[in-house]
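Can't paste images in this forum, so I'm doing it all in text. The chain is below; anyone willing to post the predicted structure tokens underneath?
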Amino acid sequence: MQDILSMLNALHRPRLLMRAARIGAEDYRRTAHLPRLLGYGSLPRHGAALMRLMEIEGDLNTMRIGDDSSYSLLRHIDILIAIVGEARILRAAQADPVAS
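Text version of the structure:
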């Protein structure tokens, strides 16, 4: 099974979507954003949050490609922002295990 960061590296989305996600991730705060996206309650660990976000994003991307009328571009960008933000936090924690 691929690790989470390898799965993220294999994720290919339109350039404009990813650009918006990277810009939005600059202001990403997990305590404010994750409850709104994943539901309220205790926050999941970074890996678990990324897996859930990637499942949601996969569904949204399927809707985008299929021209589904219920597709929400704003929700898709919100999810991508959270994915980029969580990935940055996870990479930083792996690079500096003393800080975590």
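The chain has one domain: 4-95. The chain has five helices and no strands.
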